Amino acid sequence: MDQLVITKAKEILKKTEGNICFHCFGRKLSTLVKNKTHLQTAYEVCDILGVDLKDRHCQICDNVFDKITPELFGKIYNKFDYLNIEFETFEVGTIIQKEIKQKDEELSDELGLNSESIKKHLNRIIATQIASKRNKKIDLIKQDIVVNVNLKNEGKIRIQINPIFIEGKYNKYIRGIPQTEWFCVYCKGKGCRKCNGTGKQYSESVEELLSKHLLEATRGYKSKFHGAGREDVDVLMLGSGRPFVIEIKEPKKRKINLKELEQKINEINKGKTRYTNLKYCESYRKGQIKQSSPETFKVYKAKVCCDKEFDESKLKELEFLNEINQQTPIRVLKRRTDKIRQKHVKELTTQIINNKSFELTIKTEGGLYIKELISGDEGRTQPNISEILGVNAFCEQLDVVEISEK
């Protein structure tokens, strides 16, 4: 054994008056001894020094390691069985008295030791046992669950079930369905006469028509929908669909056949919504998809109506629309920052319906409000179609035809 180890061991014993457990003794020497467990180090050094630490009350950890008992693991396994959770990877977290952590750090500082923390050692001991008994993998980076053991409170066990993320695309084939759940404007979700006690402004949403089936299949707690932008409630989402990620929180079953479930969901929602290319993804995809919205091009088809007859020759001028300066529309000011956004029109064609209406097909940069491009929104969008035609124009019907990358 290296002399530095023996010297530091003597300093530890002197400082603690020999009142230290094998776990903490070996742990304090951990950075000085390689390829040995903390207990192996402690036993070997004790043999050399002729010291027996058995049944000592540890000044550092207050014998917290004695709380790792078969009864504790019984509680953990009972919790697994009670929750009936499916997992492959896990991590352990422990809660101990602050005073223990403080005393541990003070001793290390006084003796110039860079030892492993008590919590890290506790976590590893518990995790190693679980991994062995349940044939699971310890993963400190990305885990299905976290086993939290409160060693302050009689070994109380709490299981943190991490979410799963599923991405895909959706289509919406009927109007009047929002992308996500929309609370009643009167009761804010509490339930009232206006919403017939549902707490919702709309009875269903793109999210809910998908999530209720995913939650049932995964036995999850709730969901959160992350879309690459959103269309208005009265707008259809056609073409190949809008990308999204749906987050399922606290899923007790993590592995489901998404292809089969996709077919089932689409059959149930036939003619209403459609979901395609469902697949598992990582959590960072929700951020990527949200950020991708302004970087995509979107193709819209709109029915434009005017308050009086328009000059058909001026329709040609619309094809030259390019740079649009659009101040946040009045109708979304409550939930959007009031600023001017610069967007671009890429392509535009028109088809006359009658002398007061026409169909507009337009390809634009993501984030351009089409309804306001048509109406002008009291001058907040410049240039705008109403101004160019010299009439008051409005969007009677709007569809998202396609969402495409640059």
Topology:
Elements: H1 3-16, H2 22-28, H3 38-49, H4 70-83, E1 89-95, H5 98-111, H6 118-134, E2 137-138, E3 145-150, E4 156-161, E5 164-172, H7 206-218, E6 222-227, E7 236-249, H8 258-268, E8 273-281, H9 284-292, E9 297-306, H10 315-318, E10 323-327, E11 340-354, E12 357-365, H11 370-375, E13 381-382, H12 385-389, E14 393-404
Structural class: alpha+beta
Provide the helix percentage.
25-40%
CATH architecture of the largest domain: 2-Layer Sandwich
- Distance between the ends: 65 Å
Summarize the biggest pleated sheet: 10 strands, mixed
What is the N-to-C succession of helices and strands? HHHHEHHEEEEHEEHEHEHEEEHEHE
Mean pLDDT: 93
Principal-axis shape equals elongated
Give the C-alpha Rg. Answer: 32 Å
Tally of structural domains: 4
Per DSSP, what share of the residues sits in E-state strands of 2 or more residues? 25-35%
Q: Quickly name the level 1 CATH class of the largest domain.
A: Alpha Beta
The CATH topology of the largest domain is Alpha-Beta Plaits
Tell me the number of helical segments per DSSP (H or I, 4 or more residues long). 12
Count of DSSP strands: 14
Low-confidence stretches: none
Could you name the key traits of this structure?
single chain; 4-stranded mixed β-sheet; 10-stranded mixed β-sheet; alpha+beta; THUMP fold; Alpha-Beta Plaits; 12 helices
